[in-house]
């Protein structure tokens, strides 16, 4: 694996974890938002990560028969959590109450904080890999002198 490819993979991991932290921050910030543009409470968003598939060109097809399979990084997308129902809070005096219950966002702040902690650790791990790759590259340049 080339050094540049290793740096690219680490960079895609850093971007994915940064995006994950942004989504968690957005969820926590909107944990009490009961009315959005869609006239519903805020829906929790989730990041979905997947491996980036290698590019399909002629040389890559030939190369896969002679070299081990290598990844090209990670792709991240943001989706709304539509399956989770809204939380119902009993508050009959609230103007948006239906049958005495107010629909609240489906955001669990405890889960979001754990997700943030996990994303932070994964970000730090990607930085460690990036620094190790840079150190190996530097040592390789010193050997060439």
Instruction: Give the % helix.
Output: 40-55%
Order of helices and strands: HEHEEEH
Q: Give me the number of helical elements.
A: 3
SSE class: alpha+beta
- Provide the low-confidence segments as ranges: none
The beta-strand count equals 4
Level-1 CATH class name: Mainly Alpha
Number of individual domains = 1
* Assembly state: single chain
Approximate strand percentage: 15-25%
CATH architecture: Orthogonal Bundle
Q: Calculate Rg over CA atoms.
A: 22 Å
Q: Whole-Å distance between the termini?
A: 22 Å
- Biggest beta-sheet profile: 2 strands, antiparallel
Q: What is the global morphology?
A: elongated
What's the CATH topology name? Answer: Helix Hairpins
Mean pLDDT: 84
Strand order of the largest sheet: 1-2
Question: What are the defining features of this structure?
Answer:
single chain; 145 residues; alpha+beta; Helix Hairpins; two-stranded antiparallel sheet; 3 helices
SSE layout and pairing:
Blueprint lengths: L2 H27 L15 E7 L6 H6 L10 E7 L6 E4 L10 E4 L4 H35 L2
Antiparallel strand pairs: 1-2, 3-4
Helix pairs in contact: 1-3
Can you characterise this structure?
The chain has 145 residues and is α+β, with helices and mostly antiparallel strands. It is built from three helices and four strands. It has a single domain, classed as Orthogonal Bundle (Helix Hairpins). Helix content is 47%, strand content 15%. The strands form two sheets. It has a two-stranded antiparallel ribbon. A two-stranded antiparallel ribbon has the order 3-4. The mean pLDDT is 84.
